[in-house]
Amino acid sequence: MTTSWFGPWSSGPWRTLDDLQSEVDRLRGAAAPGVRRSAGVPFPAVNVYASSSGYVLVAEVPGVSTDDLEIVTEGHQVTLRGERRIDYADDVDIHRRERRAGHFRRSFTLPEDADVEKAEAAYRNGVLTLRIPKNEAALPRTIAIQHG
Amino acid sequence: METQGNETALERTELEQTEKRPAQREGTRPGRLFEPDVDIVENPGAYLVVAELPGVDRDNVRVSLEDQVLSIEADLATAPDPSWQPVYTEFRQGGYHRQFRLSDRIDAGGIRASMRDGVLQLELPKVERARPRTIEIQGG
Q: Rounded to an integer, what distance in angstroms lies between the CA atom of residue A25 and that of residue B23?
């Protein structure tokens, strides 16, 4: 179950992420019938990018307030956890229910050169962006040649 | 969800059945379009349409009603940095487009929209229906 999301990368160079990413809990709640953009994708859906200075983890968490969202780091692991609440009054008739509600928890382990302790998070328009710089030692540098 | 009888005032206009639901686009802007996940609920006074539009702010969403077709269209407020190399991808990014057909029970002029944390909420008030009345039969 865990590896299925990693299909395209499972044998690629990104072995660290591949091996270590885990979804501890799938979002609890009834899956709506029908076909949606999010079909087959865990909540929250996450993309990871490599930038020149480090890594960027982008999670789509629409409708989740920052009060209900927690980011915990441990070692090279980053965990997103929280709850999405979708409450409708008791007297409503539900005609279509595609949005998913409930608790979520997802963990990602970043490569060794990621300085997770210096990660910075921003939340805007339902998108969480976590920037994780590389360790100073991992960044390219020029070595000056001493005159002999 | 299939409509039952004539009680369901909202009926989805089926535009696309494919898994990744790229939506048809009538506009001229370039880029991919996706169908947002939507909840539709009905209370005694109104229908509520709630659409997930992560990455969209209120200035980039357009809601229109034409010929009883409600259209939701949105662009991402910020595009991903092109210098970022994707190393793991669960979602694709692009604009959003989805349409629903409204019945004549909606008060189109009273539609209200709000946007928060990437979620659009539309309130579609029902038209006051004519009360049932008894028609007297004139004696002959």
A: 31
In sequence order, what are the beta bridge partners of A25? A105
Name the DSSP letter for residue A11: T
The ipTM (two decimal places) reads: 0.71
What residues in A contact B102, CB-CB < 8 Å? Answer: none
- What does the pLDDT look like over B71-122, one tens digit per residue? 999 998 877 788 999 999 998 888 899 998 877 678 888 889 999 999 999 9
Residue A139 has pLDDT above 50, yes or no: yes
**Which pTM does this prediction carry?**
0.71
B118 closest CB neighbour out of A46, A56, A126? A126
| Mutation site, B3, B87, B114, interface A, largest A CB count within 10 A | B87
Say how far apart CA A29 and CA B137 lie, in whole Å.
Answer: 56
> Nearest CA to A109 among A62, A137, A141, A74?
A74
Q: What is the DSSP letter of A18?
A: H
Q: For residue B2, which residues of chain A lie inside 8 Å, CB to CB?
A: none
